[in-house]
Each structure stands twice: as structure tokens, then as C-alpha cells.
TrEMBL record:
<dbReference type="GO" id="GO:0019005">
    <property type="term" value="C:SCF ubiquitin ligase complex"/>
</dbReference>
<dbReference type="Pfam" id="PF25372">
    <property type="entry name" value="DUF7885"/>
</dbReference>
<dbReference type="InterPro" id="IPR001810">
    <property type="entry name" value="F-box_dom"/>
</dbReference>
<dbReference type="GO" id="GO:0031146">
    <property type="term" value="P:SCF-dependent proteasomal ubiquitin-dependent protein catabolic process"/>
</dbReference>
<feature type="domain" description="F-box/LRR-repeat protein 15-like leucin rich repeat">
    <location>
        <begin position="89"/>
        <end position="218"/>
    </location>
</feature>
<dbReference type="Pfam" id="PF12937">
    <property type="entry name" value="F-box-like"/>
</dbReference>
<keyword id="KW-0433">Leucine-rich repeat</keyword>
<feature type="domain" description="F-box/LRR-repeat protein 15-like leucin rich repeat">
    <location>
        <begin position="320"/>
        <end position="496"/>
    </location>
</feature>
<protein>
    <submittedName>
        <fullName>F-box and leucine-rich repeat protein 13</fullName>
    </submittedName>
</protein>
<dbReference type="InterPro" id="IPR006553">
    <property type="entry name" value="Leu-rich_rpt_Cys-con_subtyp"/>
</dbReference>
<dbReference type="InterPro" id="IPR032675">
    <property type="entry name" value="LRR_dom_sf"/>
</dbReference>
<dbReference type="Pfam" id="PF13516">
    <property type="entry name" value="LRR_6"/>
</dbReference>
<dbReference type="InterPro" id="IPR057207">
    <property type="entry name" value="FBXL15_LRR"/>
</dbReference>
<feature type="signal peptide">
    <location>
        <begin position="1"/>
        <end position="20"/>
    </location>
</feature>
<dbReference type="InterPro" id="IPR001611">
    <property type="entry name" value="Leu-rich_rpt"/>
</dbReference>
<feature type="domain" description="F-box">
    <location>
        <begin position="14"/>
        <end position="51"/>
    </location>
</feature>
<keyword id="KW-0732">Signal</keyword>
Length: 566
């Protein structure tokens, strides 16, 4: 039956099927008949081999056989965790080889492998027992190597990298992962700097031994670096941070307090600096060096509560004062209205300002913000009163987040909306004093309203929804969670404005029936509803016994924990 010709489409079809089969099935199929064997022997099936998945059953004999038979086709080979390894004499088209966790790999084997694989681009040797000799072989044979992982290899020393500076070297290396190589000292980084001028990305995570001098030695000559990952390097200080910042042409600098890392982007290509534990160190002095960056477009120092008005002053007088578009200083509890004044006056291109939970800010801040370039403002959890809202003017504000501003009343909202009519996104969640009149004002004056969040406003009634559905013809997103007085009547009105309304959240709306809520569901893309009583943190005092179901967003454990650490 082997001679029977197979139509080409049948062949292709079987080939497609073969492509999704597991290696073991594939090998069994090859024994069915000649046609199947021919299909399975076609090269395309063998360009990527993953022995890692098969390592529990495959024998060295089978593996060797497969590599022997198909070696001209193999391009990607994953041997991760295969503790045995038999290498055929040559596999010269391999570009991508993963030997990580192959504990039996010796320097001798690596030597044989790299001598036979001149095209190698990616080599993963993480968690192996290779030593200096492997580095010597790489330097002799792997001229094209671009990606190398030596993470968690403890047996080589600084000297190993000396080989990279001599001989042919690995001058094309672009990515190097040295995570966990705690044996490395400043000398090793000096060699890398000299031997790998094209290095763009270096991963040196999980290195408690890493010092500033290592980082300085590295960047001395690696001027193309655009990604530096330093997770869990607790001894890195401002000095290294500053140096890294100077090497890269930075566009974004971001320290995210919550998980303590910073990311830097360049204008031409992505530059990333990930610095764990630095947020806790972010001080006015570090902001001074950040302020020297020339292309800073976006700065996020939320939760860096050591930063004070002095730090903000450096920033506003720094090289990027006319470039900065977004600034997040939320939870920076030391900064005062003075900083807001400097921000509003000097950062003339600022588009987005996040001042949420800056506890010291008062109504004065909103006066300073008046007349500025800011289009999007978050003052959640600030001590803002009606007077502050009334003073906002001369500003094309499109987005305003006032969540948790508990002192704000309908009067303030009305004054605000009368003057700031461009608002499209309004968030008054947990502004417990607001009632229907506030919504009337928003919907009457701000004709372009697209998003409204008023969750946790217990005074809202069906009237509020009526104002919205008759006045806000562009409304797409509405959150009325915890508006316990809303009834099914509101839902009938909302149904009439779908579309544009496409997103509705009605969690903890105890007076809206499931039946009515479900009726609305087919008309919207996003839908949420529950009849639960609002959780205690909504702060309602309605005599209901409520169970603590959800944690408050604003008092999220991790945030508080981190901010008290910092
Ligand atoms: C190979 O198999 C391993 C183990 O199942 C898996 O983690 C890995 O993602 C696979 N790699 C490729 C390139 O398919
Ligand atoms: C092994 O390394 C290759 C690159 O060499 C990669 O494509 C693959 O995802 C890695 N496999 C793992 C993590 O098992
Ligand atoms: C190298 O192998 C390790 C697993 O040992 C894996 O975590 C890592 O992602 C691999 N690198 C690449 C680029 O696949
Ligand atoms: C691989 O190494 C383990 C210990 O690391 C050893 O027990 C085993 O015999 C080695 N296997 C081969 C084939 O060398
Ligand atoms: C690596 O090089 C250093 C310095 O030359 C040497 O002391 C060490 O013994 C070498 N290690 C191995 C395993 O060759
Ligand atoms: C660096 O190597 C470690 C260990 O193999 C791996 O878990 C990590 O994902 C790698 N990091 C990058 C950015 O490749
Ligand atoms: C800071 O604010 C910006 C814009 O307001 C936002 O994109 C970013 O996620 C915020 N940072 C954190 C840590 O939430
Ligand atoms: C302001 O920053 C906080 C993080 O502190 C974030 O949760 C919030 O979403 C940001 N506001 C806006 C409007 O992006």
C-alpha cells in the first residue's frame, strides 16, 4: 500500500493534523504505513522540538535517534530539564537552544554543541553546572549569539567573562540574564562592559550582593543598554539609579510604590529600569536626579511618601518641565498646596495630574489648578470642599475624579459644572452627601458626559437616573453600585438609552429586582448586578445588618502596608 499516491491536499491536511500531535503519538503514527511515515518525516514537523514535555518517558536512545534523523530541520530545540543528554555530531541549523535545568550538562558537552551549531542565536543555560570553560567556548564559537541566560549558574567566576573580551568574543550579545549569580563581583561586570558593547538588555535580578559599583562598571561601556532589570537588589542606591538614568534617553520614569519598581522608557526604543525596593528610597534627592532627565513625559511616584515640596520643586524647575504630560503623586502625603501651585504654573504641557490621597491638600490647590493645561484631574480622598470646586475655572477639564470627597455637596457640584462644562468623565463615588441635584447639574451643564460613576452615593433616587437619561445623550458607562434607593423604574429608562449606554454596574442595589436587571443585560456589553446589602465600608448608616463582603479599595491592605514601610 506504500505506493498508493496521496493527493496533495490530503497530504497537507494530514500534515496539519500531525503538527498538533504529541511527539509520542507522532512516532507511533510513523509506524502505521509508508504514507504516514512520509508525512511525519517531512521537515516542517521537526523545526521545533520540545523534549522538555516528553522528558518523563523518552530515552536517550530515542532522543538521539530523532536528532540524528531530523537534524537538518531542527531550529528550535528545548531540552529543559532533560537530565541526560546525547548530542549528535552536528545539528548545524539550530538557532534556539534551551538547556536550562539540564544538570548533567558539562563544559565538554557545551563545547561539542557550540562547535557544531554556528547559527546559535539563543542559548539558555540557566540552572546548569557550567564553569568558566563554557564561557571560553562561547567566546570562541558563538559569534552570532544574541541571547544568553546564565541565571542561577554558580560555578563560573568573574574570570569567565574575561574570555568575552578576548578571542572572537560574543560581541553581538544583546540580552544577558545573570539572575541569582551571586558569585559575581564588580570585575565580572567590568569584563562584560568591555566585551559586550551591543548589550541592550541585562537581567540581574535576585542578587542581594549587587552593589552600585557593579552597575557603574557595567554601564561604563554598555552605552546601548535599554533594559536593566534589578529586582531584589536591595543595596542599589540613588547613585546607580542616577547613572542608569543618564545612560538612557528617558521618556518615562515610573516608580510604582505598591510593588516598588521603576520603569523607564526612551523616546526611540523601550528602556526599562526595574528597581525593586527603591520606592522606599525615593526621596527629594532622587527626584533631583530624575529632574535632570531631558525627555521625561510621564512620572509616577505614587506612594513615595518621603517626597516633599522640595522634591516637587526640583521637578518643576528641571529639564523636563515643558515635556511632562502625566504626573502621579498620589499618596505622597507630605506635599502641600505649594507643590500644586508649582506644578500648575511650570509644567505647561501637563495633561494628567493625579493628586489622590494627598492628605494635606486643601481648596487652595484647586485655585492653583485653575487656568492650567490639565485636562484630567484626580483629587480622590483629598480634603476638598464646595468652595474649592467653585473656584475651578479657565480649565478644559475632561475628566474629574472626586471619589471619597465626603464634604462635597450638591451646591459645590452645581457651581463646578456651571463653569467647567467640558467634563466627559466624572467620578463622584462615595461622595455620600451628593443627591439628585448634583446629577441634574452634571447632566444639564456637561452635555458631553460619557462616563459617570456614582457608586456609594446612598441619597440618589430614580430622579437622578431620569436626569441622566434625558440630558446626557452620549452616556456610555454608568456605575450606580450601592445606590440603594434606585428601583426598577430606573432600569426601564436606562434601557431606552442603550446604546450609547453599553456598561452598567449595579452591585449592591437592593431595590432593583433581579428580573428587571436581567432584562437590561442583553442591551449592554458590560453588566453587573447584585441585591446584596452594601458592605460596611460604604459607611451607610441605614440600620441594616450588613456583612463585610468586600474590602474597601481605598484601604487595600498591601497599599497601607507598603506605605507604612516606605
Ligand atoms: C516545552 O515544554 C515545556 C514543559 O512542558 C513548556 O514549559 C514549554 O513552554 C514548552 N516550550 C515550547 C517552546 O513549546
Ligand atoms: C527554552 O528556551 C527557549 C529559547 O531558547 C524558549 O523559547 C523556551 O520558551 C524555553 N522553554 C522553557 C521555559 O521551558
Ligand atoms: C530559560 O529557561 C528558564 C527555565 O529554566 C526559563 O524560566 C526562561 O524563561 C528561559 N528563557 C527563555 C528566554 O526562554
Ligand atoms: C545526571 O546527574 C545525576 C545527578 O546530578 C546523576 O545521578 C545521574 O547519574 C546523571 N546521569 C547521567 C546520564 O549522567
Ligand atoms: C574559573 O576561573 C577562576 C579564576 O581563573 C579560577 O580560580 C577557577 O578555578 C575557575 N573555575 C573553574 C571551574 O575552572
Ligand atoms: C532570567 O532567568 C530566570 C531563570 O531562568 C528566569 O526565571 C527569568 O524569567 C529570566 N528573566 C528574563 C527577563 O528573561
Ligand atoms: C498613577 O496615575 C496614572 C494616571 O493617573 C495611572 O495610569 C497610574 O496607574 C497611577 N499609578 C498607580 C500606581 O496606580
Ligand atoms: C491615580 O492614582 C491611583 C494610584 O495611587 C490610581 O489608583 C488611580 O486610578 C489614578 N487615577 C487615575 C484617574 O488614573
Amino acid at each position: 500500500q506504500c505506493i498508493l499516491p496521496v493527493r496533495i491536499w490530503v497530504f497537507n491536511c494530514l500534515l496539519d493534523i500531525a503538527q498538533i500531535l504529541k511527539l509520542r503519538t507522532l512516532l507511533n503514527c510513523a509506524e502505521v504505513c509508508c504514507t504516514w511515515k512520509a508525512i511525519i518525516q517531512s521537515g516542517t514537523l521537526w523545526s521545533q522540538i520540545n523534549f522538555s514535555v516528553e522528558k518523563d518517558w523518552i530515552t536517550d536512545g530515542t532522543m538521539k535517534q530523532i536528532l540524528q534523523n531530523y537534524r537538518p530541520f531542527v531550529i528550535h530545540l528545548n531540552l529543559r530539564g532533560c537530565t541526560f543528554l546525547k548530542w549528535p555530531s552536528e545539528c548545524k541549523n539550530i538557532q534556539d537552544l534551551n538547556l536550562s535545568e539540564c544538570f548533567n550538562v558539562t563544559d565538554m558537552m557545551v563545547q561539542r554543541i557550540v562547535e557544531g551549531c554556528p547559527c546559535l542565536l539563543y542559548l539558555n543555560l540557566s540552572c546548569t553546572l557550567i564553569t568558566n570553560k563554557t564561557l571560553r567556548e562561547l567566546s570562541r564559537n558563538c559569534l552570532n549569539l544574541q541571547y544568553l541566560s546564565l541565571a542561577y549558574c554558580y560555578r563560573f567566576t568573574d574570570k569567565g567573562f574575561m574570555y568575552l573580551t578576548t578571542g572572537n568574543g560574543c560581541h553581538n550579545l544583546v540580552h544577558l540574564n545573570l539572575s541569582g549569580c551571586t558569585q559575581m563581583t564588580v570585575n565580572g561586570f567590568r569584563y562584560i562592559s568591555a566585551g559586550c558593547p551591543s548589550l541592550k538588555e541585562i537581567v540581574i535580578n535576585d542578587m542581594p550582593t549587587l552593589s552600585d559599583s557593579c552597575v557603574l562598571a557595567l554601564i561604563a561601556r554598555c552605552q546601548c543598554l535599554s533594559v536593566v532589570s534589578l529586582l531584589d537588589a536591595p543595596h542599589i542606591s540613588d547613585v546607580a539609579l542616577k547613572a542608569i538614568a543618564e545612560v538612557a534617553k528617558l521618556k518615562t520614569f515610573r516608580t510604582q510604590g505598591e510593588i516598588c519598581y521603576s520603569i523607564i522608557y526612551t523616546s526611540t526604543e523601550r528602556t526599562e529600569v526595574i528597581l525593586f525596593h527603591l520606592c522606599c528610597l525615593m526621596t527629594d534627592a532622587s527626584l533631583k536626579s530624575v529632574a535632570k532627565l531631558k525627555n521625561l513625559h510621564n512620572l509616577d511616584i505614587s506612594l513615595c511618601n518621603k517626597v516633599s515640596d522640595t522634591g516637587i520643586q526640583y521637578l518643576t524647575e528641571g529639564s523636563s518641565s515643558t515635556k511632562l504630560r502625566e504626573l502621579n503623586v498620589s499618596y505622597c502625603s507630605l506635599i502641600t498646596d505649594t507643590s500644586v501651585m508649582r506644578i500648575a504654573q511650570r509644567l505647561c504641557k501637563l495633561y494628567h495630574l493625579n493628586l489622590s490621597y494627598c492628605e494635606r491638600l486643601t481648596d487652595m490647590s484647586l485655585e492653583w489648578v485653575s487656568g492650567s493645561s490639565i485636562c484630567s484631574l484626580d483629587i480622590s480622598g483629598c480634603n476638598i470642599q464646595d468652595q474649592g470646586l467653585a473656584s475651578l475655572q479657565g480649565i478644559f477639564l475632561k475628566k474629574l475624579v472626586l471619589a471619597g470627597c465626603v464634604s462635597v455637596t450638591d451646591v459645590g457640584m452645581e457651581k463646578l459644572c456651571k463653569t467647567v462644562r467640558d467634563l466627559e468623565h466624572v467620578d463622584v463615588s462615595h461622595c455620600g452627601a451628593l443627591s439628585d441635584s448634583a446629577i441634574r447639574a452634571v447632566s444639564f451643564y456637561c452635555r458631553g458626559l460619557v462616563t459617570l460613576r456614582m457608586s456609594g452615593c446612598p441619597k440618589m433616587t430614580d430622579m437622578a437616573v431620569q436626569y441622566l437619561t434625558s440630558g446626557s445623550q452620549y452616556l456610555r458607562e454608568l456605575d450606580v453600585s450601592g445606590c440603594v434607593l434606585l428601583t426598577d423604574r430606573s432600569l426601564r429608562r436606562l434601557e431606552r438609552v442603550c446604546p450609547p449606554l453599553g456598561s452598567i454596574s449595579m452591585v449592591c442595589c437592593s431595590s432593583i429586582s433581579k428580573v428587571a436587571a436581567l432584562k437590561l443585560r442583553p442591551h449592554v456589553k458590560h453588566w453587573e448586578h447584585s441585591n446584596d446589602n452594601p458592605p460596611y465600608w460604604f459607611g451607610y448608616n441605614m440600620g441594616q445588618i450588613v456583612s463585610p463582603v468586600t474590602r474597601p479599595i481605598k484601604t487595600d491592605d498591601t497599599k497601607w502596608r507598603i506605605s507604612s514601610q516606605c
